[in-house]
Task: structure prediction
Amino acid sequence: PVSGGAATLTTRPNGGQGLTITGRLGDEIRSAGAGRVVYTGSGLLGYGQLVIIKHNETYLSAYGHTQSVAIREGDAVAAGQRIATMGAGPQGAPMLYFEIRVNGSPNNPLALLPQR
Result:
């Protein structure tokens, strides 16, 4: 979803897994796959400004700690489309928290995404 930066597998208190990806403020964030935007906002604690894309009935992708969001709820997005820019995480450092949910449960994105 973002070029460069180091990715670290993170386990959240709910047991879900996601990737914390470092970068620079304003780095472009791109959709991991085609789908429809089902949420943009900051109403979910611990994710900052969050974008959620529904890819099909099984898969969702979530992009936390975004800065500038380029899409709106209901928009269709293509794989690789710019959806936001990187913002700052809870400690103030630039980062993206990236999660893939399978049937509603967060899963290790490294096991689901193609190698680069």
Notes: The helical segments are 109-112. The chain is about 5% helix and 50% strand.
